[in-house]
Amino acid sequence: MTNEIMLSKLGFISIFPEMVSAITDWGVTGRAVRDGRCSIEVIDPREFATDKHGTVDDRPYGGGPGMVMTAPIMTAAVESAKNLLGDRAPVIAMSPQGQVVDERLLTTLLQQDSLIFVAGRYEGFDERFVSRSVDIELSVGDIVVSGGEIPAMLVMDSLIRRIPGVLGDELSAEQDSFVDGLLDCPHYTRPEIFEGEAVPSVLLSGDHARIADWRAAQSLKRTLERRPDLISEFDLSDEQRSLLARWEMQ
Ligand code: 9D3
Predict the structure, then answer these.
(1) pLDDT on residue 172
(2) pTM (predicted TM-score)
(3) Integer distance in angstroms from the first to the last C-alpha of the chain?
(4) What is the pLDDT of residues 200-242, one digit of tens each?
(5) Is position 176 annotated as part of the catalytic site?
(6) How far, in Å, CA of 105 to CA of 23, rounded?
(7) Fold of 180-248
(8) Which of 93, 133, 177, 189 is most enclosed, with most CB atoms within 10 A?
(9) Residue 245's pLDDT is what?
(10) CA-to-CA distance for 118 and 134, rounded, in angstroms?
(11) What residue segments make up the domains of the chain, in order of their start?
């Protein structure tokens, strides 16, 4: 990112706060946290419950199945997160009713210095909490999961890996699928022949220009075949356009 402000502080509000270890303890995101490239404040709404059982939910007005996370408790949890992360930190509630996340949205979220993620359980949040305290509702797509924690951590993972310096030796985040709008090319490693199937010879040629061309063509071909919805003529280069035109003739 060439922007002035860069994301470095995250909040994670959840009644299952230990789930955040999936991010903080493993891999690229774990290293980012250990190296101080980002920090994660974890808040359990149960801390703000007023009864001895730590109740955070209640029965829905109008009846029906399931429970609803209460507005007073979720509001207190967000206030607490804002005390830790700053008043202007956008609040993102994970919800099946939200906007479906993509890299374009992540690019705008990366330009905030702090973000607060709210994960729900049960049927969801009291709508008055959503309308008063939530800036963005995010979904991870048309799939039903058991709560907002894994969706929130999916988005947090994707954000953290795009913080400058987080990806070291690994492929740069700029080259990743979807950031340039195309699927990745196929990859091969040893052995050179596996069950009679050889590695494409171009990859053994040592001709780096030809290899780069082959990979770019494979990316474009696979995207055309598997995810034509990702191809917008706007951001194709002249070379890509002529490759596409050639394939469309065949
Ligand atoms: C009965 C209707 N269901 C709503 C589609 C109930 C329901 C299912 C799953 C209520 C909450 C949930 C929990 N899901 C999330 O919190 C969630 C989610 C998801 O299920 N799919 C995609 N993105 C997300 S973000 C948060």
Answers:
(1) 65
(2) 0.94
(3) 39
(4) 999 999 999 999 999 999 999 999 999 999 987 767 888 888 8
(5) yes
(6) 20
(7) Trp Operon Repressor; Chain A (1.10.1270)
(8) 93
(9) 80
(10) 9
(11) 9-160, 180-248
